C-alpha cells in the first residue's frame, strides 16, 4: 500500500477507535468550537469509541494577546508527546491552529502519522480586524498547516468551496448539530421587564463578531447581548440602552433564546454559526447578513431573514414563523454530525 493510499484510508465504521482530538479551544472556554467538539466526543463515546481531548487546560498557559480570557498552552511539545503516547491513538484530528495544534502537527509529521484537521475559525479576517495584518499572509500559513494532513473538515458547502479555491487540498464535509432536547420552544419570562420586541445576540463579545452593527441599529423594543469578551466594557459604555446579560450556558442560554423575538447574528466572518441553530431550535427566527455561515444555515425564508440591510432583516424577521424556525433546526442533529466526522477520519498505521 502506498503512502497516499494510507493517508486516504478512512476509519472503518465497524471497529471502535481510539480517537485523539487536539484543540487550543477547550473548556473552560465557551464558544461554538468547544460545544462542537464536546458534543461529537460524547456521541462517539456513546457509540463505543474511546475519545480523548487534549486542550490547554492540561498545560501551563499564557493569555492570548488582545483576548486574555483565552489561554494558550505554553511550550507544550514534550508534555504533549507524553500524553499522546500514554493514550495510544488509532486516529488523530487537530482542531485548531494554535500552539497545541502546531505541536501536534509537528509530532505527527515526525512520526509519519496521518491526521486530519478541522477548519473552525477564519483567523485571517480576525487578525485583520485586530491588527490590520493582510489576510493573504495568514491564509498562506493556514494553507501550510492544513495541507500537511490527510484531510481538512469544513462545515458548509460555501466554506468548502472557498478553501479549495484558496489551495486547500482534501477538503472534507462536516456539518454541525444542535441539542434539540435542550434547545426547544417554550415559555420563558427572562427579560420580562424589558420593552418588546426583544432582539438578542448571543456569543463572544469581540470585535470580529461585529456586534456594533447590531447595537447601532434603530430598532423598536430592546437589544440584549448574552455573552462576554474583550469588547464588552467598550460596548456597554457606548450603548448604555442595551442590556448585557453575561455568559449563559445550558438551560439558561436556552431560556434566553426562547424569550427573544428575533435572534440577530451580525458576524460577517463565522464559518458556521452554531448559535443560529440553537436559536431556531428554540423557535426564535434569525436576522443576519447574507454571508458565509448564515447563507448555508438559514435556508428557509420562513425561519429567518438575510439582508445586507441588517435593520430590515431584523424587522422582517418579526413576521417569521417560530414553528418554521424549529422545524428547520430539526434537520440537524449531533448523531449525524458525529457520524460524518467519524467517516472522514483516517487510521494510524498498525503498530504506529
Short recap of the structure:
The chain has helices at residues 3-8, 32-46, 77-87, 99-111, 123-131, 135-147, 157-165, 211-215, 232-238, 250-259, 274-281, 294-297, 310-317, 322-329, 334-344; strands at 18-22, 50-54, 61-64, 67-73, 91-94, 116-118, 151-154, 171-173, 198-202, 222-226, 243-246, 262-265, 286-288, 304-306.
What does this protein look like?
The protein is an alpha/beta fold. The protein has 2 domains: 3-177 and 334-344, Rossmann fold, CATH 3.40.50; 198-329, Rossmann fold (3-Layer(aba) Sandwich), CATH 3.40.50. The protein has helices at 3-8, 32-46, 77-87, 99-111, 123-131, 135-147, 157-165, 211-215, 232-238, 250-259, 274-281, 294-297, 310-317, 322-329, 334-344; strands at residues 18-22, 50-54, 61-64, 67-73, 91-94, 116-118, 151-154, 171-173, 198-202, 222-226, 243-246, 262-265, 286-288, 304-306. Strands 2-1-5-6-7-8 form a 6-stranded parallel sheet, with helices on both faces. It starts with a helix and ends in an 8-residue tail after the last helix. Mean pLDDT is 92; it is low at 1-9.
Q: What is the helical fraction, as a range of percent?
A: 25-40%
Rounded to an integer in angstroms, the radius of gyration calculated over CA atoms is: 20 Å
| CATH C-level of the largest domain | Alpha Beta
Query: Proportion of β residues?
Result: 15-25%
Kindly report the spatial arrangement of strands forming the biggest sheet.
Answer: 2-1-5-6-7-8
Q: What is the overall number of helices?
A: 15
